[in-house]
């Protein structure tokens, strides 16, 4: 059985929306408008295709993206530069088959060239022990907890375990290449850089 991780395609958004909203309480629901914002602005938005079937996706944002998640802002208040995994979703029938590990290997190979840390969260209330073990096995550790205040897109009162992983390759890459990575296909961004949001400035 083959697993292919590749960039999302626009015609797949309806399938991704259905996959997200069938994932259960450990994943925040999406509507079509927010998913479209992800498609338009996420730095990393890739899908996993197993045996020809779309079976999961992962969405991530760099620390300068201005992403509007309260969990993203929590990290932004504490860390200068990081890559944030907003969500990873794997179809229920494919869980335990290696898709999550394939995604994390892929996203780390992208992030460690550009960011010193990778961040994500696991909701505490929803049988989170398997997710904690999974993330711990990848080197994530808890750096605090955050209760989501509630917004149009996020329900309030959900407590999240905030996780960070140090990306040890970043310092070496920065020392030797700075922002000018070699011109090789596997080093290119999976998607164009997310446009920086307009911020009003005042005096």
From TrEMBL:
InterPro entries: Acyl_CoA_acyltransferase, GNAT_dom, UCP028520
Pfam families, A to Z: Acetyltransf_1
Record-annotated N-acetyltransferase domain positions: 3-165
Span list, region Disordered: 183-203
Name of the protein in question: GNAT family N-acetyltransferase
């Amino acid at each position: 059985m083959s697993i292919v991780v590749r960039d999302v395609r626009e015609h797949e958004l309806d399938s991704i929306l259905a996959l997200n909203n069938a994932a259960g309480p450990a994943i925040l629901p999406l509507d079509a408008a927010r998913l479209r914002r992800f498609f338009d602005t996420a730095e990393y938005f890739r899908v996993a295709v197993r045996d020809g079937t779309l079976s999961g996706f992962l969405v991530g944002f760099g620390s300068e993206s201005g992403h509007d998640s309260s969990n993203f802002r929590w990290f932004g208040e504490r860390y200068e530069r990081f890559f944030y995994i907003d969500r990873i979703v794997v179809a229920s029938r494919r869980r335990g088959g290696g898709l999550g590990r394939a995604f994390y290997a892929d996203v780390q190979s992208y992030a460690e060239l550009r960011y010193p840390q990778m961040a994500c969260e696991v909701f505490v209330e929803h049988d989170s022990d398997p997710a904690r073990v999974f993330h711990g096995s990848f080197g994530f550790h808890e750096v605090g907890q955050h209760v989501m205040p509630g917004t149009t897109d996020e329900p309030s009162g959900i407590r999240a375990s905030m996780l960070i992983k140090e990306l040890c390759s970043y310092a070496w890459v920065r020392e030797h290449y700075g922002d000018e990575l070699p011109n090789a296909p596997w080093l290119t961004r999976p998607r164009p850089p997310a446009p920086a949001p307009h911020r009003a400035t005042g005096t």
